[in-house]
Amino acid sequence: MADPEQHADFVYDQIEQHHDLFGTGLPMIASENCISPTARRLLASDFHDRYAEGRPGKRYYQGLEHVDEVERRCEQLAGELFDAAYTDTRPTAGTTANMAVFFARTEPGDTVLTLDTDDGAHISHAPIGAAGLRGLNVEKLPADPDRLTVDADRAAEQIREVEPDVVLLGQSLFLFPAPVEQLAGPAAEVGADLVYDGAHVLGLIGGGQFQDPLREGADVVTASTHKTLPGPQGGIVLSDKDPEEAESFTDGLDKGVFPGTVSNHHLHHMAAKTVAFAEHLAFGEDYAEAIVESSQALAGALAERGLTVLCEEHGYTESHQVAVDVGDHGGGKQLAQRLEEAGIICNMNMIPGDENPLDPSGLRLGTQELVRTGMGPDEMDQVAEFYARVILKDETPDSVAEDVAAFADRFDEVHYCFDPGQEAYRFWELS
Ligand SMILES: Cc1ncc(COP(=O)(O)O)c(C=O)c1O
User: Is the CB of 197 under 6 A from ligand 1?
Assistant: First the structure.
């Protein structure tokens, strides 16, 4: 049996290689991002080692006065950033935030209306995910294939007919705003909660560059804190219902998180979330604007080169994502692999008409991490050319990878944070 040091060396070595992969490539997975150097340092503090069930001032353990102070600040900044009367930053992921809301607002056997995963919804909305785990009856909302969102007119009719308990909007493939405003009325008429899963677009919402679901009528927003919101891995629950006026509603949400779905929340992540929210309050508007402009520039540049970018007639995208149909060029699975060999990291994705999630015809691209490391709309033409060289010109991935590495080398410092200029990848020395 190898001694522990050998295992540790093995892990260090793998992480160093992983840093090289990202440091010499183009990270374009739409659900990822890199945190700021300050936030990353906070992940290593002693907060990691502690327990703090409950809310500040209402704990079950001693030794938490400083944890309480930070957590109060975290909730305060989240409230400011998202203009939310109720915030809960304790969920450890977007999925647990969804579970907490299902736990709080539904009983087994209740009905939730949501898009199908084939139409862009997340697995936690599905019978085989968190919704199924809660025993919910999941019915599909009608999709609008032109904009890959919910068909608002048909959905309004369906809500009146089915009278669900929850209408769940928000997607993993999320190019255009969801019809929150159009569906808030029908949902309220039948007594359904309108829940908006903003996992992907939280940073765009915080930066004022996407829809604002709480102002448009969503009762609750759930999200991840590590996608377009460039914070640590984690989740969040938000509502505009004031705990003093809607105590039973917000108390229910609170219990859905603890003790419902989280025992000890991750205190080091909470510390890093605090800084991420503060940074987004300061820089989020510029960051989110550059993300959306870059996605639109990338979509246009890919289409100019002859690739089929979805939703052309609607301007391709209003988010951090771009969806490309590569069915005629070998399919998403094969191309995502070839692109990785060329240093471009993205993922295969189902697009309308696909039936096999393991061999879909689409690619989903995200610009949020490229922008985080200093790119903007001006660089997207070059990025599109790298895609074209692999997908259309059939160049060997190795030859493209060299050029990608030289290009990426100019963009590996974190931007839109308090201490910009530090390296995003490999900035902490391992040995
Ligand atoms: C729409 C949506 N909701 C929830 C999640 C889950 O987020 P997490 O990975 O933080 O659990 C995702 C993940 O990508 C998502 O796309």
Answer: yes
**Orientation angle between helical segments 380-391 and 397-408, nearest 10 degrees:** 170
Quick check: 425 pLDDT over 70? Answer: no
Which residue CA neighbors atom 8 of ligand 1 most closely? 94
Tell me whether residue 260 is in a domain: yes
Contacts of 5 (CB under 8 A, 6+ apart): none
Per-residue model confidence as pLDDT tens digits over 399-411: 999 999 999 999 9
Q: Is the pTM of this model over 0.85?
A: yes
Answer yes or no: is the C-beta of 124 below 6 A from any ligand 1 atom.
yes
31 Cβ below 6 A of ligand 1: yes
pLDDT confidence bin for 431, thresholds 50/70/90: very low
* 355 falls within a domain: no
Q: Which atom of ligand 1 is nearest to the CA of 233?
A: 10
Is residue 403 in a domain? no
Alpha-carbon distance of 325 to 322, in angstroms, equals 10
pLDDT at position 194: 98
Nearest CA to ligand 1 atom 16: 172
CB 261 near ligand 1, within 6 Å? no
Asked whether 24 lines ligand 1 (CB < 6 A), one says no
Question: Into how many domains does the chain fold?
Answer: 1
pLDDT at position 429: 54
- The C-alpha atoms of residue 297 and residue 385 are separated, in whole angstroms, by 12
**Cα-to-centroid distance, 102 and ligand 1 (Å):** 15
Q: Which residue segment(s) compose the domain that 134 sits in?
A: 40-274
* 146: CATH: 3.40.640.10
User: What's the rounded mean pLDDT across residues 291-301?
Assistant: 98
Please report the atom of ligand 1 found closest to the CA of residue 198.
Answer: 1
Phi, psi (degrees; rounded to nearest 5) at 406: -65, -40
CB-based contacts of 395, cutoff 8 Å, min separation 6:
389
C-alpha dihedral, 239 to 243 to 245 to 247, nearest 10°: 110
Selection from 139, 138, 135 nearest residue 109 by Cα: 135
Q: Which of 191, 272, 236, 225 is nearest to 100 (CA)?
A: 236
For 205-214, write each residue's pLDDT tens digit: 999 999 999 9
Phi, psi of 27, deg, nearest 5: -80, 110
Q: Is residue 56 part of a domain?
A: yes
